Amino acid sequence: MAETTTSKHSMLSRRSFIAGAFAVLSSLALDGCQSNSVDGGASTTITVTDSVGRSVEVPRDPDRIAGLDSFTGELMVMCGAGPKLVATPGGVVSDLLLREIYPDLVDVPAPMANSAINMETLLETNPQVIIIKEDVYSVKGQRALLDKANLPYVVVGYTTMDEQIFAMELVGQVCGGEAETRANALADYYRECIDECSRRAADISDDERIRVYHSINALVTTDGADSLGRDWIESVGAIDVSAEDPDAFSATDYMSSLEQIYAWDPDVFVCNSADTTEYLLAKDNCAGLTAVKNKRCHTIPVGATRWGQRGSVETYLAMLWLGVTVYPDHYAGIDLQERVTSYYHDYLGVEVDDELYAQMLSGVGLRKQSGKAGS
Description:
By secondary structure, the chain is α/β, with parallel strands linked by helices. The protein has helices spanning 3-8, 16-22, 70-78, 90-93, 96-101, 119-124, 134-137, 140-149, 161-175, 177-201, 228-235, 241-244, 258-264, 274-282, 290-293, 315-326, 336-348, 354-362; strands at residues 34-37, 43-49, 55-59, 65-67, 85-87, 112-113, 116-117, 129-133, 153-156, 211-215, 221-223, 239-240, 253-255, 268-271, 297-299. The chain has 2 domains: 3-33 and 45-191, Rossmann fold, CATH 3.40.50.1980; 206-299, Nitrogenase molybdenum iron protein domain (Rossmann fold).
């Protein structure tokens, strides 16, 4: 998207009804967390349970949060907690719609390089609490550095949609205030999309099920058996060929090969990168694949996040998009453009016109290199 496009779509104001409509949820804001107080006075901290089962005491409604996970950084901006964000991965800063929602995002430091934390840069941001992804926590050296910093840190991680919803609500708890209310509302929307897709998928017979290959950035990187990609793709009623193969390595990611892809010969390719889609359709060594011959190679859309990307928030939109794309009869009655437009308007305060919607579906032009370390 050209730089002028973001200006054109700067119709992004918070809808006043969001705070009011979500206010009824505020009384539930502390569900799942424990309040702690000093000398019996007002509560100053809460205790949350993170994605790996740790109990962590964090400040109540903190002002300075280092969201060192893309999912966390995206969600904080989407829920109005951008001003609390003092550090985040460079990939979050690259999203143009997130920049419009929170213009100061461009100035947020990115103290990450190849998933490793630069502790000196991080500590310069003076965070009150740190949120990291499970992959970072699993590295003993990174964990030791965080422990040495003597700051509370919360781990988010997920390989299923239910776990991602838990992580969504967890980030909301840490942020507190209106951000927690809005995170809970997004989690409820996610559940509604799961229920809708599950109902429609139940009517798809075994012989109708589309066999999908999901490319994660590089063509040969795909879903393992224990992955978010498998969960959302199969919830729509499709078969995730790599995740279902008993010979494939059972993990979050699976490194395939072109020979293996030919052996699976999927009906449809779903690609996180438009470059991969173009590669499939242009290269002679891919021309014999059924999905390529039938021109059924699709790029995952990009909006406020890359839909369905494992480190992004909007898995629920990817589900609706894939259902409508590969099962137009079973997902008849869903006007995807209307659903997307309503979602961005109601939950994010973003107005999506025809031009912006088309750009979202192309998967191209709504992300820009930030120029920051870790991008």
